[in-house]
Model the fold of this input.
Amino acid sequence: MIGTRVTGRWPVMTSAQTAQARCLDEKELMFAGAEEMAQAQQVCQDCPIRPGCLAEALDGRYDYGVWGGLDPGQRRELRRRHPEVTDWHALLIEPRNLLLVGLDQ
Ligand code: SF4
Done:
């Protein structure tokens, strides 16, 4: 979520790129309860900055909200399945690498 979630952590992300986030007007939804989780995840599906968003949440071990299309439990599971990944940002800087960890682009 831009504004609260996109930080200076991403050296390759420009403000023009982060301005493309699909959740710009959906901040509350992205941190809503379990009932709205699926709806929030839908917002991420065609977001052009999804890989960077997901990487930030995984590297930061964020345990709240939907980031990069995954809820907190899904992110924990992804980290558990891939303990070899120590820098998600470096991995997901190439969007096609989402496929390497079992996620659609
Ligand atoms: S991937 Fe989802 S949470 Fe991340 S910026 Fe895009 S719409 Fe927002």
Observations:
- The mean pLDDT is 84.
